[in-house]
């Protein structure tokens, strides 16, 4: 069997129609341009003869019914099928409220985009002959209503059954929370840990036992590809956050070799945003002081607030550089422990934006 197909990945759309957007001066992502950003990306992708589109969560700003309805109707107009999963912003409450849908309502908004069973928050389907998608739900709530990033036991058991029954198919897995670490010691850092799947080791072991090698995630708003023992976690930055990226992926399989070519694109301009890249990066830097101050006070640095406040402005470019992918960071003016810590976020391992992967057989 030979495969030759192309698909797109857009993540963390944060669709917000004007009447649903609340002002937040510290927000990194630019929800006010979410509709025009998606339209621009879809215009480009619609010209590429794609076989399908994956959207790994955070479809809406905060689970608003109007935003879910609008997106479902817009995706139905595309010349290729789309497949979605919920992100933490799509189902912020276990039960519906006046402003957001409940967790169990999510599949009902997307019956044409993977959810053939309205009672189940995860699914599998054949994308093409010889290609299977497994779409997982990583959003759960504890008894107090606190949102978790975890796969429940029932879903893991279902996944094991699906993998055991899958024969001679290339499997793509999509889940919102990160499966592999995309930042140094991400599972140990209080800030980075909340973007990780809480029971990622269970999922990793299960996928590796069945030779699944490609996972597509979102949530972190950075361009990064992590690799561990043959498993690749391709996380795609947010379309409404610098650098406003999306990906096009070409898969070719012949005989015993499967090659995956990952190509990244980014939005350069939008109506009223003629130089989106420059303006967006500057805005992220201007809004970063509060975030970086908090980051500096957390483990492992644990700086006093007063010290963190003085250092944060010198790190205004940090998150934008990390979000860019393939970061190169240098902070010679910072105290040595702080300098070493942040420079460790510089690129290592596989490339984040343009990469060719040869899958193991």
TrEMBL record:
This is 3',5'-cyclic adenosine monophosphate phosphodiesterase CpdA. The keyword Lipid biosynthesis does not apply. Keywords: Hydrolase, Iron, Metal-binding. GO terms for molecular function: 3',5'-cyclic-AMP phosphodiesterase activity; metal ion binding. SUPFAM superfamilies: Metallo-dependent phosphatases (SSF56300). Its EC number is 3.1.4.53. Gene3D superfamilies: 3.60.21.10. Pfam families: Metallophos. Residues 5-222 form the Calcineurin-like phosphoesterase domain. Belongs to the cyclic nucleotide phosphodiesterase class-III family.
């Amino acid at each position: 069997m030979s495969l030759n197909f192309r698909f797109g990945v857009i993540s963390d759309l944060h669709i917000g129609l004007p009447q649903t957007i609340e002002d937040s001066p510290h927000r990194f992502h630019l929800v006010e341009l979410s509709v025009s950003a998606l339209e621009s990306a879809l215009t480009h992708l619609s010209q590429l003869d794609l076989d399908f589109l994956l959207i790994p969560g955070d479809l809406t700003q905060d689970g608003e019914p109007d935003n879910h309805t609008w997106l479902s109707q817009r995706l139905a107009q595309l010349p290729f099928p789309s497949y979605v999963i919920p992100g933490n912003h799509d189902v912020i409450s276990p039960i519906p409220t006046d402003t957001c849908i409940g967790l169990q309502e999510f599949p009902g908004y997307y019956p044409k985009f993977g959810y053939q069973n309205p009672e189940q928050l995860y699914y599998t389907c054949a994308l093409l002959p010889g290609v299977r998608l497994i779409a997982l739900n990583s959003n759960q709530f504890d008894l107090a209503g606190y949102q978790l990033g975890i796969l429940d036991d029932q879903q893991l058991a279902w996944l094991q059954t699906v993998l055991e029954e899958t024969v001679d198919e290339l499997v793509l897995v999509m889940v919102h929370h990160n499966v592999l670490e995309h930042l140094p010691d991400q599972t140990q850092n209080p800030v980075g840990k909340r973007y990780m799947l809480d029971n990622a080791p269970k999922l990793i072991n299960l996928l590796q036992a069945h030779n699944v090698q490609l996972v597509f995630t979102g949530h972190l708003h950075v361009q990064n590809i992590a690799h561990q023992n043959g498993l690749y976690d391709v996380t795609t930055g947010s379309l409404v956050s610098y650098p406003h990226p999306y990906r096009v992926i070409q898969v070719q399989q012949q005989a015993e070799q499967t090659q995956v070519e990952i190509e990244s694109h980014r939005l350069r301009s939008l109506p009223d945003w003629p130089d989106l890249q420059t303006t967006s990066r500057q805005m992220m830097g201007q809004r970063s002081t509060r975030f970086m101050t908090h980051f500096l006070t957390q483990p492992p640095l644990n700086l006093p607030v007063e010290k963190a406040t003085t250092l944060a402005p010198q790190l205004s470019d940090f998150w934008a550089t990390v979000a860019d992918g393939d970061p190169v960071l240098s902070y010679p003016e910072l105290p040595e422990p702080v300098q070493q810590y942040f420079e460790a976020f510089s690129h290592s391992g596989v490339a984040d934006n343009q990469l060719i992967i040869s899958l193991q057989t």
